[in-house]
Design a protein that fits this description.
By secondary structure, this protein is α/β, with parallel strands linked by helices. It has a domain of 98 residues: NAD(P)-binding Rossmann-like Domain (Rossmann fold, 3-Layer(aba) Sandwich). It is 35% helix and 22% strand. Strand 7, helix 6 and strand 8 form a beta-alpha-beta unit. It is globular and about 65 Å long. The chain starts with 14 loop residues before the first strand and ends with a strand. The mean pLDDT is 95.
Length: 406
C-alpha cells in the first residue's frame, strides 16, 4: 500500500478497528440482506505523515444516489455555513459578476446562501438525490466527482472561480493529487479556495476514533497538506481554528503567484510539531487510548442496563457506525435511535441493526436515557430535548468520555 498523497510505501497499521460496514449505507428495515464488512485500519505515511486508511471501498460505493447525509439537517451547521457565506461576500466584495464553486455541495446548505445573495454559484456533488435537494433551493449542481477532468470540462464551459470551497470533503477523496489539481486549474489567478476539515491533532488529543470510517480515506493535518498543495502551485495563505466536529481547521489556499504563507499557518505548524505528528509513537499511544475509550463506554452502558434503564439514541451519524460496531453495542443495549434526516428514518444503523425513527418517538415512548450519538452537536440537541429532560429523561454522550450530562 502506498500513500495516497506522496506515494511513499506505508508500513504496518497504527490502529485496527476491526471489520465494520459502510458507515452511511443505512439498510432499510425490510431489507433481509447481510451487510458486507470491511477492514478498518489506520496507517501513517513515514514520508509526508498523512494519516489514512486502506481504500478497500470505492468512492462510487459511498457517494451514490442514495447517499443519506444531508448537511442542512443541522441548524448549527446551517448557521456556520451561512456566516461563512456572508463573510466571504463582504470581504471579497462578491456580487453578480463573481463565481463561487462549492465542491461537495450536498443539499446546498452553503451554496444556497450565496445564491440568495445574488452570487453566481455552482455546486458539484456525486450524490444525485442530494443534488436534487440543492436544486430545489436554486443551486445549479453538476453531478459528478470533482477532479482535474471535471475542472477542464467546467473551464471549457467558461467557469472560472473567484471562490472555491470544500467543507469536510478533502478527507473523502481517494486521489488527492487529482482533486487538488482540479482546484489549481479552476481557481482564478487571484481567487481563494477554502478547505474545512477536522484536524488530526484534535483527533489524537480527543481520542475521537468514531470519526474514522471507510468514507474518510484521510485524516488531515497542515503537515501533510502543505507539500500536496505546493506540488500544484498552491500555498496555504491563512488558517483558522474552528470548533466544528470536535476541532477543525479552515485553510485559505491561493496560487503561489498571488500570496505567501501567512503567520497563522506557521502557528498551526508549530502546534503540530509539538504534538508529534511526525512521530509514529504518538499514533501508537492514540491506539491505546482508543482501546481504553472502548472499555469505558462498554462499562458505562453496562451499568445503565444493570440499573434497568431504557436507552434510546439521538442521531444516527456515520460516526455512530464505527462507535457501535467497534464497541459491540447493539439492540440489546439501545432500544432505537431517532434522527431528523428523513433519509435515515425507517432504516437501521449499519452493522448493529438499531432502528432509526423520527424524533417524535422519544416523546411517544419516553426512555430513561437518551444517548446523543451526534455528540459534537450535543448542545444543539440538548436544547431541543429540554421538554424531555423536564419529564425526567437523562441525556448522555459517548465521547470523548461517556457521561451523563448535568
Amino acid at each position: 500500500m502506498r500513500c495516497r498523497s506522496c506515494r511513499a510505501v506505508l508500513g504496518e497499521p497504527v490502529l485496527d478497528l476491526g471489520l465494520t460496514p459502510i458507515a452511511n449505507a443505512y439498510p432499510r428495515l425490510d431489507d433481509p440482506s447481510t451487510e458486507q464488512l470491511h477492514p478498518l485500519r489506520l496507517h501513517v505515511c513515514p514520508a509526508c505523515f498523512l494519516v489514512q486508511i486502506e481504500a478497500v471501498v470505492t468512492r462510487e460505493t459511498h457517494f451514490n444516489a442514495d447517499y443519506a447525509y444531508r448537511s442542512g439537517a443541522s441548524s448549527s451547521w446551517r448557521a456556520h455555513v451561512e456566516a461563512y457565506a456572508r463573510r466571504m461576500i463582504d470581504e471579497l466584495a462578491l456580487g453578480p459578476g463573481s463565481t463561487v464553486v462549492e465542491v461537495g455541495s450536498n443539499d446546498g446548505a452553503l451554496a444556497s446562501a450565496f445564491v440568495a445573495a445574488g452570487v453566481r454559484t455552482l455546486g458539484v456533488d456525486p450524490a444525485a438525490k442530494a443534488a436534487g435537494a440543492a436544486g430545489a433551493k436554486g443551486v445549479e449542481t453538476v453531478i459528478g466527482f470533482f477532479g482535474a477532468q471535471l475542472a477542464r470540462e467546467l473551464e471549457a464551459r467558461g467557469v472560472a472561480a473567484d471562490v472555491m470551497c470544500a467543507n469536510n470533503v478533502l478527507a473523502h477523496v481517494p486521489d488527492l493529487d487529482d482533486f487538488v489539481e482540479g482546484f489549481a486549474q479552476l481557481l482564478k489567478p487571484k481567487g481563494v479556495a477554502t478547505f474545512e476539515f477536522p484536524l488530526v491533532v484534535d483527533l489524537l488529543a480527543g481520542g475521537s476514533y468514531d470519526t474514522i470510517y471507510h468514507e474518510h480515506y484521510s485524516y488531515l493535518s497542515l503537515t501533510a497538506l502543505e507539500p500536496l498543495f505546493a506540488r500544484h502551485g498552491l500555498v496555504v495563505a491563512d488558517v483558522e481554528r474552528l470548533p466544528t466536529h470536535g476541532g477543525s481547521a479552515r485553510l485559505f489556499v491561493r496560487h503561489c503567484s498571488a500570496a505567501g504563507r501567512g503567520a497563522r499557518v506557521e502557528t498551526l505548524a508549530q502546534e503540530e510539531r509539538r504534538a508529534g505528528l511526525s512521530d509514529l509513537a504518538v499514533y501508537r499511544a492514540f491506539a491505546a487510548k482508543v482501546a481504553a475509550r472502548r472499555e469505558a463506554l462498554r462499562a458505562f452502558i453496562r451499568d445503565l442496563k444493570k440499573d434497568g434503564q431504557r436507552i434510546a439514541a439521538y442521531g444516527a451519524p456515520a460516526k455512530a457506525t464505527t462507535l457501535l460496531a467497534y464497541c459491540g453495542i447493539g439492540r440489546e443495549s439501545i432500544d432505537y435511535a431517532v434522527d431528523r434526516a428523513e433519509t435515515k428514518q425507517g432504516r437501521r444503523i449499519p452493522g448493529v441493526g438499531i432502528e432509526i425513527s423520527p424524533p417524535q418517538r422519544l416523546w411517544d415512548e419516553t426512555p430513561d436515557v437518551v444517548l446523543i450519538l451526534a455528540w459534537n452537536l450535543w448542545r444543539e440537541i440538548a436544547a431541543d430535548l429540554t421538554p424531555l429532560v423536564e419529564r425526567g429523561v437523562r441525556l448522555a454522550v459517548p465521547m470523548p468520555e461517556p457521561a451523563l450530562l448535568p
